[in-house]
Design a protein that fits this description.
Blueprint (H helix, E strand, L loop, with lengths): L1 H18 L17 E6 L5 E5 L12 H11 L5 E3 L2 H4 L13 E3 H10 L3 H12 L2 H16 L21 H11 L3 H7 L3 E5 L4 E5 L4 H4 L3 E9 L3 E10 L2 E10 L2 H18 E7 L12 E2 L3 E7 L4 E6 L4 E6 L4 E6 L1 E2 H58 L1
Helix pairs in contact: 2-4, 2-5, 4-5, 5-6
């Protein structure tokens, strides 16, 4: 069931990404950023609102833990108890001070790595799944490639400590985060400002390392990072009204400059763009209803306060949204009625065939059961007759 959900989710995300690809632009002239690479996307549609060197290979640092966290949530049993190893206890960098041999629920480890950026928690998660960081990194790479669909990311560990081959792009991290933020538990954890932590080696209050949760109105997540080679990295999301943006900044000179870049990106997005969800009046397309399946709702990204109309381009079978200047701002391929019926017929035929085969398979079983029952009844009758004869002879 999880695999089916993942397949549906990736197809859903790719659908919007492909439909809105022409919406992407590079808007460097609007403002400058300190970060060497950055991207701003619509978290709902996947439309790119701003990008700077978004396909350049970079070192991600602890934003790597976004992938570790979503894998643990989707593929693990969060109630499982994980025993902390010596390797996890000894890891460098930020920790939640786990002790060797300490037994910790998987969910608590996920909270520790996403809220407090615990490298020891990340290693413990990796070993829970695959016994080693290297093997878990293979799982991570397969997950982001096959489940999410990004192609320029290669992880070597679950926490983001520097490795020459541990690389990603701003674009890939935006898509990864878009996927992760569709999971309610992941969203809940990365939006948690503080959490009481009671462990064998540390009792404290964890405060989320993402300062935007306190500083920027509408922030919903997600993760920051730093190692010397990567500089300061940051992935964040913010929601206001119907719009939620996801932004990534890579290799900033300081934490404050990374946050400043993020605020500039979000301000730019909320000032200029909006996520639209409009109901389609099917009665306006009566002449097409016999040929195409008319969608009930269209979800797309557009500039703020635009006037638009919805039309059908029958030449290539698309429903299009056109602004007052006559520009197409959104288009969606329509499904022909014939194709839809064929799919329905095929599905129905498969169900009938399956039921028919099941029925045919069950017939021999029914016959065997009937014969066995009849034979048993005959034996009982025979035994009854013998007893009756003995009884009469005794009289």
């Amino acid at each position: 069931m999880k695999k089916f959900y993942k397949a549906f989710l990736i197809l859903f995300t790719l659908q919007f990404s492909l439909q809105n690809l022409t919406f992407a632009m590079e808007d460097k002239d609007h403002f400058s950023l300190n970060s060497e690479a950055a991207i701003l996307i619509d978290g709902t549609t996947g439309s790119i609102l701003f990008h700077k060197e978004s396909d350049r290979l970079m070192y991600p640092a602890s934003i790597t833990k976004i992938v570790t966290g979503i894998i643990a949530i989707e593929e693990g049993n969060l109630d499982d108890i994980v025993t902390v190893s010596k390797a996890a206890r000894s890891i460098d960098g930020t920790r939640v001070y786990l002790l060797e041999g300490e037994r910790v629920p998987l969910l608590k480890l996920v909270q520790g790595l996403l809220i407090n950026s615990g490298n020891d928690a990340a290693t413990a998660v990796a070993e829970y799944f695959d016994e080693s960081e290297a093997q878990f990194a293979e799982r991570m790479n397969e997950f982001v490639s096959e489940t999410i669909g990004v192609k320029n990311t290669t992880f070597q560990n679950p926490h983001g400590l520097f490795d020459q081959k541990h690389q990603t792009t701003a674009y890939d991290m935006a898509r990864i985060t878009q996927y992760a933020m569709k999971n309610p538990l992941f969203r809940s954890i990365v939006s948690t400002k503080e959490m009481e932590w009671v462990g064998e080696g540390w009792e404290t209050t964890l405060y989320n390392h993402n300062k935007l949760l306190w500083r920027y109105e509408g922030t919903t997540g997600v993760k920051n990072g730093f190692v010397d080679q990567s500089g300061y990295t940051l992935v964040a999301s913010a929601k206001r009204g119907s719009s939620e943006w996801i932004a990534v900044t890579l290799k900033s000179d300081s934490s404050e400059l990374a946050y400043s870049d993020m605020v500039n990106l979000f301000d730019y997005g909320f000032e200029h763009y909006e996520t639209y969800s409009i109901s389609v009046d099917a009665t306006s397309f009566q002449s097409y209803k016999d040929r195409f399946v008319i969608p009930k709702t269209l979800v797309f990204t557009g500039t703020k306060d635009i006037d638009f109309k919805v039309e059908i381009d029958q030449s290539d079978g698309q429903i299009v949204v056109i602004d007052s200047a006559g520009q197409i701002i959104y288009k969606e391929k329509l499904v022909p009625i014939v194709q839809s019926l064929q799919k329905t017929t095929t599905t129905t035929d498969q169900v009938i065939k399956t039921e028919s085969e099941s029925y045919r398979t069950s017939i021999p079983k029914i016959i065997i059961l009937a014969v066995t029952t009849l034979f048993t009844l005959l034996l009982i009758r025979k035994q009854w007759i013998k007893k009756k004869r003995r009884y009469l002879s005794n009289d």
